[in-house]
Design a protein that fits this description.
Chain A is an alpha/beta fold. In chain A, strands 5-4-3-10-9 form a 5-stranded parallel sheet. Chain A starts with 6 loop residues before the first strand and ends in a 20-residue tail after the last helix. The mean pLDDT of chain A is 93. By secondary structure, chain B is mostly beta strands. Chain B has 1 helix and 5 strands, in the order E-E-H-E-E-E. Chain B has a 5-stranded mixed sheet with strand order 2-1-5-3-4, with no helix packed on it. Chain B is globular. Chain B starts with a strand and ends in a 5-residue tail after the last strand. The chains are: A alpha/beta, B mainly beta. Chains A and B meet through strand 4 and helix 2 of A and strand 3 and strand 5 of B.
């Protein structure tokens, strides 16, 4: 791959186009090894109350912040106000203005509440945040988020943790045509081919958590995802052949043995 | 005096500062954010911010989790 093919948003450059999560791993040690195997440079983390009884280890002992950029998220927030407060707290913890903005609208599907998402995006952009909103695969919404100042848009491939893959590749394709900011598929990736499809469509990156953490062997799946994202990106840059209904012979028809 | 820390009642020394409470709880101030009665307190103010009985303190950090 070309050396200068990097994921860029808000003036930051990343060689890896895979963003990974920290939830649902069997333990922190396997999470750490999966992060290494994934080749990711950005790791998303939740923002929660400190555990006062100190029986559990700290996540931050298992993420080398000199090596990984932390991307705090507002997972679990159901209103714009909750998400804004969570983002402000995240900035105090990490002293970074990056935020993966989630405003959930429904508990069963974890689909975003786009109305509050847009509201929170506007407020946080004004507060100086680099906002990466998790949204539906809705091109009009993606456009509105871009206009509101989002640094990238993160449409879902399928519901969070569902592993259903890229359910509407045509919408993702339209989003890619409609916005200029990076498009990072967030949620739905179940296996390597799903990640490759997202990248082949021309997406700038893929974020996944459950697809790796929930696999029987998270470290092996992390490595598979690393290859899938690279392969998908290369295939996109290489330019695939058009699909045709009938065969086209790849060997010459002249000189056949009679 | 009694405070509410992360939703639970807790006794701390009269006139304690945020820095003192974090120290007592063995919490690294560089890894948390603190909200006092819903107001976010900047890290550099922990040592000067004195707490009062009944104050509600939220101590927030990064945890495992997030979508995808």
């Amino acid at each position: 791959m070309e050396k200068d093919d990097v994921l860029t948003f808000a003036g930051r450059e990343f060689r890896s186009r895979l963003i990974v999560g920290t939830g649902k791993y069997p333990d922190y040690r396997s999470m750490q090894r999966a992060h290494e195997a994934s080749g990711a440079q950005i790791v998303t983390v939740a923002v929660r109350r400190v555990n006062l009884d100190r029986t559990r280890e700290s996540l931050l002992d298992y993420i080398d912040t000199a090596k990984y950029t932390l991307l705090p998220n507002t997972a679990g927030c159901y209103t714009a106000d909750e998400a804004i407060t969570t983002a402000l707290l995240a900035r105090e913890v990490g002293l970074s203005d990056l935020i993966k903005l989630e405003v959930i609208g429904d508990q069963r599907t974890l689909f975003p509440d786009n109305e509050d998402l847009l509201k929170a995006t506007k407020v946080l952009v004004k507060e100086g945040f680099v906002v990466l909103p998790y949204t539906n695969d809705d091109p009009v919404m993606a456009k509105k988020l871009e206009e509101a100042g989002a640094a990238a848009v993160m449409p879902l491939g399928a519901p969070i943790g569902s592993g259903l893959g890229i359910r509407n590749p045509y919408n993702i394709k339209i989003i890619l045509e409609m916005v200029r900011v990076p498009v990072i598929v967030d949620a739905g990736v179940g296996t390597a081919s799903d990640a490759a499809i997202a990248m082949e469509l021309g997406c700038d990156g893929v974020l996944m958590n459950t697809g790796i953490a929930g696999a029987k062997d998270p470290v092996a799946m992390a490595e598979a995802m690393r290859h899938a994202v690279i392969a998908g990106r290369l295939a996109y840059l290489a330019g695939r052949i058009p699909k045709k209904l009938y065969a086209t012979a790849s060997s010459p028809v002249e000189g056949m043995i009679e | 005096m009694e405070l509410t820390i992360n939703g639970k009642r807790r006794d701390v020394q009269q006139g304690a500062t945020i820095a003192a409470v974090l120290d007592e709880l063995r919490i690294d101030p560089l890894r948390v954010a603190v909200q006092l009665n819903l107001e976010i307190i900047k890290r550099e103010r922990y040592a000067q911010t004195t707490l009062h009985a009944g104050d509600r303190l939220e101590i927030i950090t990064f945890m495992a989790g997030g979508s995808g």
